[in-house]
Structures are given as C-alpha cells and as structure tokens.
Amino acid sequence: MTYTRHRDTRETLSIIDRLDLDSEKLTKEDIIKKCGYGEALENGQLSFWQNVNTHVWALFEEPNSSLAAKVGV
C-alpha cells in the first residue's frame, strides 16, 4: 500500500465517522418524544405504562442505550 492510498483511506474513514449518526446517544426526553408521549411529558402526566413503554422501545431500538439492551442484541 502506498502512502497516497493510505492517506486517501484515512480521509475517507474520517468522513464516514462524521456521518455516523447512530453513535449519538438519545436522551430520555428524546425517546419519550419518539414514542409520541411528548405532550404527556410536558404536562407531567406520563403514566407508569408510558414510562415502561419508552424503556422497552429503547431496549429494542437503541442497542447502546443500556447494558440490558447490549445483552439482548
């Protein structure tokens, strides 16, 4: 491998790393809003089951959200 090829590969990988949007960890508020409970959160009326639903969603949809999610994958 020549140095030019190595440099081009490094530049390409750095661009890909910047584009990796899945590495951002969602906050609890973001997950609640994704589940459609944003209004209940703002009003302080998030029920027990809505709260459990957001944790289950994070468990399956966000594999880096918790240790249990990592084990489940």
- Beta fraction: under 5%
| Total DSSP E strands | 0
**Rg over C-alpha atoms, rounded to the nearest angstrom:** 19 Å
- What number is the mean pLDDT? 77
**What is the general shape?**
elongated
Give the helix tally. 5
Low-confidence stretches: none
Series of H and E elements: HHHHH
Helix content: 55-70%
What does the main sheet amount to? none
Structural class: mainly alpha
What distance separates the N and C termini?
A: 36 Å
What report would you give on this structure?
This protein is an all-alpha fold and 73 residues long. The protein has a domain at 25-73. The protein is 68% helix and 0% strand. The protein is built from five helices and no strands. It has helices at 3-19, 28-34, 38-43, 48-61, 67-72. The model has no long low-confidence stretch (mean pLDDT 77).
List keywords for this structure.
single chain, about 70 residues, mainly alpha
In short:
By secondary structure, the chain is mostly helical. Helices cover 68% and strands 0% of the residues.
Topology:
Elements: H1 3-19, H2 28-34, H3 38-43, H4 48-61, H5 67-72
